[in-house]
Amino acid sequence: MKPAGDELRPIGGGEATAGYPPPEQLIDVRRVDRPDAVVVDVDGAVDVLTAPRLRTVLVAALDSPGERPVVVDLTRVRFFGSPGLQVLAESAREASTRAGFQPLRLAVDSNRPVLRPIELTGFDAILALYSDVEEAVRGTSPG
Amino acid sequence: MKPPSEQEERPGGTSRPHTGGAGPPAADVLRFELAPELVAPSIARDRFDRWLIALRWPDAQRDDLVLALSEAVSNSIEHGYGIRADAPGLGVGEVAVTAHVLVEADGLRRIVLVVRDSGVWREPVVPARFRGHGLSIIRACADRLSIDGTDDGTTLTLTTRTAPAPLDAA
Q1: Which of A14, B54, B73, B140 could potentially form a cystine with A120 if both were Cys, beta carbons 3.0 to 4.6 Å apart?
Q2: Which family does it belong to (chain A) (predicted)?
């Protein structure tokens, strides 16, 4: 982990209020179709602004032909709020209704910004968590 | 929805003293107001995080506090002002965020975080506004929490657990 000093930025004067990125730059959601899985790769922040984008991609991924599992890679997410939890819960429920039921699989490793809200709300009891994408694709338990 | 670059900033609207007396030094207070838009939580997180870093607040508690603030601001936007992706709102009102440091006699520090909105959109009864998981997250990150809802809006006040005094040698 970087020393905290690397992240020190001046506060107060000189703050550029126009410098905030547009919403499509707060999150990057990519879908990768593999023979053995559909992987949805998420980078950035998942909050009330960006969660609808994640929902759109997940709904389409769950509609993919074949009975491949859908894996959501959250290992590079740096913020994850309750709207993101809501999308995961809805998608997990949706996955469970599909033919050839494959539970939604989440790769989270030890990424605290994602794990913390999942644990605080008890979602770790109902979501299938794995420590990396390959493990999630195989569906092998993190042990 | 307007692009976030047009996010209007109205700093320093009200400047009442916090707890009476001399008041804390400027660096120990953070105050800003945001227009009620869906981008507001991300702006609030960014500013609060930088302030906490400058205070050398412990990393784990800092992450929790940023998460709690994001949930509180989201709640004001969604339930206070009724703003959704498909209902971007009329640009009326604001979400005011204030944070200050409390130093206790033994040198331990706490942060008092206040999120205030003037939204009365359809759900003036406070508990109904805080459905879902946002409030569980906020509660888990707080030592003390109060939510005061009136016809004029809602004020959420969160007091953190204690953090050690900053290390001067850092």
Answers
A1: B140
A2: Belongs to the anti-sigma-factor antagonist family.
